[in-house]
Design goal:
323 residues, mainly beta, Jelly Rolls, eight-stranded antiparallel β-sheet, seven-stranded antiparallel β-sheet, 1 helix, ConA-like_dom_sf
Length: 323
């Protein structure tokens, strides 16, 4: 049954699904009079001009509206907002100052705090292989152990997608005693266009193939950040990292520039931060294969060490502070 507009002094009863008498309901079906302001459960309804729509926006609640016929608050569907101009919910927020755009949520959030490796963003599937959970010795804190051979986490959602924006944050510990010289922390492994910048042509394939990557080199103790778009050649930033220590890493592409940052604490307790930015525009090239954390070509580029946390976004979180 579909709710109907009832004649004067009647209202629609959702349980009975019919119009029932109500002496306080005298809003005409032909023209709904706009109201200035009145209180409803301590909320303030926004002023409206006379119009036929009998839904009212509620100040401070962009994804709700007040139904003057049913005399109840109602919700818009997820990721939609009430738009007075359309007298209904819309994917795009109306110009009213109280309406907000959907917040930026991580596609991937792994903190290794569970018995198995899971994405806390439940609607985005990941495939974790040979990645063990290891206790840290501190209550409630666990790490993901990558064995330097075949440990990885795949993110199928990012396969074949050209991104306008990208943000990755991770915390890693590079362990001694295993792994290749060049080790993948994150990479989409191979892009759809194999256009290579001159400063990667002499490097191993692990640097040449991807359009997005964070790769560590053990001998030099340098972290390489790679981004390539449809309008620019491969852009590279290199920053030193702390070997056999925890490193907090960020790579941000916002459509205008590539920014990389590493923050670590040296054995003597001194905080060290390295950061660099390079101009870059366009869309990040889509990958041919499934992007991975931990490895692209098995033992040839597998990461040996620990990850404490990984977050990945296809947007830029405005309110997320540095770790």
């Amino acid at each position: 049954s579909v709710p109907m507009c009832c004649r004067d002094f009647y209202r629609y009863d959702y349980e009975l699904q019919e119009c029932t008498p109500d002496v306080s309901c005298n809003i005409s079906c032909n023209q709904r009079e706009g109201q200035e302001y009145y209180n409803l459960s301590a909320d303030q309804l926004m002023a409206t001009d006379p119009y036929e729509c009998f839904f009212r926006p509620i100040s401070g609640k962009p994804n709700k509206y007040y139904n003057e016929v049913a005399k109840i608050e109602q919700d818009c569907a997820d990721s939609t907002f009430y738009n007075p101009e359309k007298c209904g919910c819309d994917m795009i927020a109306a110009p009213a100052g109280t309406l907000r755009a959907p917040r930026c949520r991580p596609l991937l959030h792994v903190d290794f705090a569970n018995d198995t490796v899971v994405n806390l963003r439940r609607d985005v599937y990941i495939n974790a292989q040979n990645t063990d959970i290891q206790a840290s010795g501190m209550e409630g804190v666990q790490y993901g152990l990558f064995n330097g051979r075949n440990s990885f986490i795949e993110i199928p959602y990012l396969s074949g997608i050209a991104l306008d924006k990208f943000f990755i944050r991770l915390r890693f510990y590079s362990a001694a005693g295993g792994g290749a010289e060049d080790q993948v922390l994150f990479s989409n492994c191979e892009s759809t266009i194999s256009r290579t910048a001159t400063d990667t042509s002499e490097l191993p394939q692990v640097y040449q193939r991807p359009s997005m990557a964070v790769i560590l080199n053990k001998p030099s103790r340098l972290l390489t950040f790679i981004a390539q778009t449809d309008t620019s050649p491969k852009t590279i930033i290199r920053l030193p990292f702390l070997d056999e220590g925890w490193n907090n890493v960020e790579m941000v592409y916002d459509g205008k520039a590539l920014t990389a940052r590493i923050r670590s604490v040296s054995p003597d307790g001194t905080g060290v931060e390295e950061k660099d930015t390079k101009i870059l525009s366009g869309r990040l090239l889509a990958s041919k294969f499934t992007p991975r954390i931990g490895v692209c070509m098995t033992e040839r580029d597998a990461f040996f060490g620990y990850l404490d946390m990984v977050k990945m976004y296809d947007c830029i979180p405005a309110d997320l502070p540095m770790m």
